[in-house]
Each structure stands twice: as structure tokens, then as C-alpha cells.
Design goal:
The protein has 331 residues and is mainly alpha-helical. It has one domain. It is built from twelve helices and seven strands. A hairpin with a 2-residue loop joins strand 5 (250-251) and strand 6 (254-255). The longest helix has 25 residues, at 73-97.
Length: 331
């Protein structure tokens, strides 16, 4: 038995129920998504990605004794709510850019399209954050990774935000030449403003030389990108790309160079989520866990320590003591 500093008791199951449910969903939804079974295949994107999310959440829970779902079911559900408008924002930019389009083999009303698309878009943030949590639980990525410190004062942060806004304007003015800036501008606009508002911010971490959350998000972005593109290849409906200057070699439907966009996209997801959470909840989103390091004995960067009846590996995961950041891992 393992006990946190605040007295909570956790005994992670070998096969958490969300892991089993997720595996079942993936096993059913994946073949149906790639089948010609009409109309069932039309509705499999969301169940498939909910399955992925539950699988990863279960793996995180097995490794750490906690997860986004088990730690706060309400805030976990809010990830889905926040995700749909986030991706609709990118769809709005794509009206001008025309970098991707959706292919349907059947007729669909506008109302049905918006409803089903919103459900599909609602899985983006949960998938990204669950994957980041899984990477953070790995020993090689669990600790602080310090590199070049980039402290910026108020003027510097406002300058970066202005540069981000300029990137977005250039994207809209010159869509064929400046389209990659949409994957940078939203981050550079939003993250410094989050920093100034006291919300979660990567620029605040980098100012102290902390780059570990950046690397974790990069890995989450490229991993989710792989699964998005892989599961898209046999789907109906599906998306295809028209990306200037990036034809050449493709991996699934995505030009190979296009996968680079998933790296800053992960940072944008993080920044936009924190901005929206701060605006709605009026406080920082300090419950995610993957944006704080922890060491092999369960001590968080905030200094809260865990207690355990035994420090041995056989006793299971160690723990941390703060309710909002109870991110733990096996030792």
C-alpha cells in the first residue's frame, strides 16, 4: 500500500478499467473505421480516439498511480469541451490556407457535418495531454531538463506576443508563402500573454532554463500526429493535403515535412488550453501533472514529498503529496 503526504491511499490495478475499456473500443472501432460497412464507418473516428485516450490514461495510471481521468473526472471531461473550439479555430484559418480538405463518399447535411466534426475535434486536447502524461512517466523524461534560460521581462513578452500576431497576419495575407506560420503564431501570441496573466506558460518555464515540458509536448505531438495520419489512411471520411512546396515523400497522406508541424502544434494546444482555462475558471490549470518534473523517489518540483510503507520496487508506485499535482511513477 502506498500513501501520499495528504493521506490518500492508492492501489493501482494491474489492468485499470479505463485501459480495458479503451482496448475494447480500439479493437472494435479501428476495423469498422476502415470497413465499407455503411453507415457505421462514418461514426468511428470519435470512438477510436476515445479508445486511444482511455488506453493511454490506463497506462499512465498503471505507471504512476494517478491519471488525468482518475485525478479529476470533471476537469478531464472539460478537456473535451475545450478541444472542439480549439480545432475549429484552425479550421477557420484553413478556409484561407486551403492546406487540407475532407473527402466524403456520401452526402451529409451541414448540421450533421458540424455535429460530427465537433465530436471528432473534441478528442484533440485529451489525446495530446494523455500522451504527454505517458511520456512524463518515463524515467528518462521525469526530471527537469535544463538548458538555455531565456528570461523575458514584460516588454519582451509583449514583443513576442506582437510577433506572434504578426505571423498570423502574414499567414492570412500571404497564405501560399506564409502558411507554416499558423503553427507558430498562435503559440507566440498566446503563451507570453498567459505568462503575464499568471496562467500556465512555457515561457515562464524556459525563463528558468526548464525545457522538459517542451520536450514532452514535442514527443506527444509527433506521436499523436502519427496515429492521426495512420488511422486516417483507411478512413471514410478522411482528410487529404494540399501543402505548397512540400509534395515529395509522404507518410500516409501527410507530406513528410508536414510532420514537423506537429511539434509546435503541441505547444499551441498547451498554450490555448491554459488561456481558455484561465478565462473560464479564473485560476491557473495546475492539475495536469505532466508539466512538472518529479524524481525517482516521488519528490515534485514544488517540494511536496511522498511517503511509502516500503521504498522497494515491489511495493508499487511512489507518490507525491499535493492534491493538484499528485503525479507519481513506479520506482
Amino acid at each position: 500500500m502506498t500513501t501520499t503526504a495528504v493521506g490518500a491511499v492508492s492501489a493501482p490495478r494491474r489492468f485499470p478499467p479505463q485501459l480495458l475499456a479503451g482496448l475494447a473500443l480500439v479493437a472494435v472501432a479501428w476495423p469498422l473505421a476502415w470497413s465499407n460497412l455503411d453507415p457505421v464507418h462514418r461514426y468511428m473516428f470519435t470512438p477510436l480516439w476515445v479508445g486511444y485516450i482511455l488506453v493511454v490514461d490506463g497506462l499512465v495510471f498503471r505507471r504512476t498511480g494517478t491519471s488525468l481521468l482518475t485525478r479529476s473526472p470533471g476537469r478531464f471531461a472539460w478537456l473535451f469541451v475545450a478541444s472542439a473550439p480549439l480545432w475549429w479555430l484552425f479550421e477557420a484559418f484553413n478556409v484561407r490556407l486551403g492546406n487540407w480538405r475532407y473527402v466524403f463518399s456520401y452526402e451529409q447535411s451541414r448540421v450533421e457535418y458540424v455535429a460530427l466534426a465537433s465530436l471528432a475535434f473534441s478528442t484533440v486536447i485529451p489525446a495530446m495531454f494523455e500522451t504527454a502524461s505517458l511520456y512524463r512517466s518515463l524515467p528518462a523524461l521525469s526530471r527537469e531538463r535544463r538548458w538555455l534560460a531565456l528570461p523575458l521581462g514584460r516588454r519582451g513578452l509583449l514583443g513576442v506576443a506582437a510577433a506572434g500576431a504578426a505571423m498570423l497576419v502574414l499567414t492570412l495575407l500571404f497564405p501560399r508563402q506564409a502558411f507554416p506560420l499558423v503553427w507558430l503564431g498562435l503559440f507566440f501570441l498566446t503563451d507570453p500573454l498567459n505568462n503575464l496573466a499568471g496562467a500556465g506558460s512555457l515561457s515562464a518555464q524556459v525563463a528558468r532554463g526548464r525545457w522538459d515540458t517542451v520536450w514532452v509536448l514535442f514527443l506527444a505531438g509527433i506521436t499523436c500526429g502519427f496515429f492521426w495520419e495512420m488511422w486516417n489512411i483507411g478512413a471514410n471520411p478522411k482528410w487529404v493535403y494540399d501543402v505548397p512546396y512540400a509534395g515529395g515523400l509522404k507518410v500516409f497522406e501527410m507530406p513528410l515535412l508536414g510532420y514537423g508541424g506537429y511539434l509546435p502544434f503541441a505547444l499551441e494546444v498547451y498554450a490555448l488550453y491554459h488561456a481558455l482555462y484561465r478565462a473560464v475558471a479564473r485560476r491557473p490549470a495546475d492539475w495536469l501533472g505532466f508539466d512538472e518534473p518529479f524524481d525517482a523517489v516521488g519528490v515534485t518540483a514544488r517540494g511536496a514529498t511522498a511517503t511509502s510503507d516500503s521504498p522497494s520496487r515491489a511495493d508499487g508506485p511512489g507518490s507525491v503529496g499535493r492534491v493538484d499535482r499528485p503525479f507519481r511513477r513506479s520506482i
